[in-house]
Design goal:
globular, Hypothetical protein af1432, 11 helices, 188 residues
Length: 188
Amino acid sequence: MLEKIYEILGVNPIDKEALMDLVPELRKLNEFGFYHPAHIYGVLDHSIKAAELVDDIFLKLVLIFHDIGKPNTAILVPNYDKSKPLVTKFPNHEKESARIAKELFENELDEEGLNIFLKLIEFHDTPLVKIYNENVIEYLTNHYGNEFVGMLLKVQKADLVTHSEKYYKKLKAGFENSVNVYELKYKR
């Protein structure tokens, strides 16, 4: 299956129908309806657009599956900006996405590749600077290595820029700060 997925991901624009035919869980993701002002695309379309922004085939794979757990974690909560009464939130969707991805790829990737794949999915929404007074970049660099943090920043950027402009602008400075900290202190 992985080889066929890589063939599909190797061509832009990515063939959504071919992906859904190969991985039925992606069809569920495509059919999932929700409202959240940070999103301008459905979940699968967002994932595909993010994947099309990176060159590395492995990172494309991560981006296609980074939100696959959203339908299983969706809850409705009050919308405080009042544009609609309720918005959809996805608590712990990163862990659920990693769980589903593990089921799909544990026999497709070697152990090291699977671990990196799952950790990139699990950390794709983690702000990297000053969380709970801990420098997350330092932690991730020490535990997973420099290359991992570089890959994570590429995943996060592609994910971030495929959200609404308002959401992107709100988080852009913090993301750029993370990149600057990484490049000045940790990138080797």
